[in-house]
Specification:
The protein is α+β, with helices and mostly antiparallel strands. It is built from 15 helices and 30 strands. The strands form eight sheets. Strands 3, 7, 8, 9, 10, 11, 12, 20 and 23 form a nine-stranded mixed beta sheet that branches. A five-stranded mixed beta sheet has the order 27-26-28-29-30, sandwiched between helices. Strands 14-15-16-19 form a four-stranded mixed beta sheet, with helices on one face. Bound molecules: adenosine-5'-triphosphate and magnesium ion. Magnesium ion binds next to β20.
Amino acid sequence: MRLSRLALATTKETPADAEIVSHQLMLRAGMIRRLGAGLYTWTPLGMRVLRKVEAIIRAEMAAIDALEILMPAVQPAELWEQSGRWEAMGGLMLRMTDRAERDYCFGPTHEEVVTDYVKRDVRSYKQLPLTVYQIQTKFRDEIRPRFGLMRAREFIMKDAYSFHMDTADLDTTYQAMRGAYARILETMGLDYRVVAADSGAIGGAKSEEFHVLAGSGEDELAVANTGGYAANIEAAVTQAGAGPRPAPGAALKKIETPGVSTIAGLAAHLDVAETETAKAIVVMGTEGAPVLLMLRGDHTLNTIKAEQLEGIAAPLQMADEATIRAHFGAGPGSLGPVNAKVEVIADHALTHTADMVVGANYDGAHFTGFNWGRDHPEPRFADLRNIVVGDASPDGQGTIEILRGIEVGHVFQLGDKYSRALGLTVLDESGKEVVPEMGCYGFGVSRVVAAAIEQCHDEAGIVWPAAIAPFTLVIAPIKADKSAAVREACEALYTGLKAAGVDVAYDDRGLRPGPMFADAELIGIPHRIVVSERGLASGMLEYKARQDSANDEVAHDIAAICDKIGHSRS
Ligand code: ATP
Ligand code: MG
């Protein structure tokens, strides 16, 4: 491609509204342009990367016999009413009405539509297993669209769905898809982890996420330093305290703690460790009354675990101050279990504690020497907290470290939730109607482009992994306007490298070397060949790999250049 024809539009300035590096670099390199909140146009340069990502995905889908389809982005409400998700999706779903006043949504996902499609065409066990996928635009009205394509409202997803006669067969395809996702990310040259995940609104039994590791990632991953345990912190299980509970050693004593409203403040005020305190969080229960959750002072509430407990309203709803005052006679900051007239659920890290500091249910007062059983009946203990660095791994092997990741893929074993709700049945060998098991597998096509940049960049710009770079090599002429020899050599190299199958860009824009090199680095082209009269005279051209700081050279010869960049000629 001649760069004069690409409508390149790079900028030096970092856009003020872009918080993370991938968003900044995609704007500066001119890969995307913003239309509105969470809405982006892919430019010709951006499309080159997107198409490469799609090609890698399609190749791996073909390798596991997943069949490509394309479903409508606009979906009738009736299907979502059948699955119960027209209500459940809430504000995330963009709804619309046609001229006949029928309700539709712009698909945030396609479980309902794909199940309806399979219902029409699949009648017999002989047609299963079946895996179909599409690469398509989704719309989710995210509460906080941000970070460019990382959390957009309109974005591109590869979504696959599989159908099976039984769970063993589902597991076989699930494992194959898991393998395909791993190969996709390996081909892209990205450092990633697979972690156990919460199934969220999609539902189902088993699910795992694929995360590209990056400091800017929105997700925290709990990964054991030895053994294989890895889980999204949302789903990471914690262990109850070990050993017997120490006997009470102190009497319950009320102390004044005026103005103390945080655990850190409380620990400092009493000169105790935060681990010797317990904090109170009041949430709404399913019966309308609040429920008191107790956690060790240094721990944090895992809202997903909490809302999955019986008796607690989902989505989790914090009690407001008026409700808290009505039930406890004190405000947040001084709450505790002593004389509380609501149900108490304590995190199981508190099972083996004695003589704790807790709120007194009087403003500006706490109790020291609090003991379960003596000062409050034994509560219901449950896993309520987020796992933290240094916790024992739930599988007993090693301790937990926390990594940050960007979720780029999510694989689910759905079971029969959607097939049952939408009345999909197939006939088994004996002619009996069976409700198929389903799997679903999402991959963030546009997000993975941003994730790759988060992981692969430097001060000068993007450092693309070879497989998804917009071009493999750029030819950079020096003073081409003054030298016919340089122009001719560039044309010959351009033609020769193209013929050899190299994805080559020829920077024929007539820029000075400084801006020309800066663009190539910003755009992240992995290899650069500089063509100058001096180089031509010596028979050696200046060569630089994007990630290297020093220049190198290469013989003025197509085969030598192909060798240098590791390209096997087609
Ligand atoms: P998240 O937790 O980041 O909101 P999700 O779990 O809701 O994502 P899934 O329903 O699992 O997303 O969708 C499959 C994939 O689609 C995700 O793994 C992610 O890569 C991508 N994706 C989801 N939401 C967005 C978005 N708003 N912008 C870009 N990509 C997205
Ligand atoms: Mg997900």
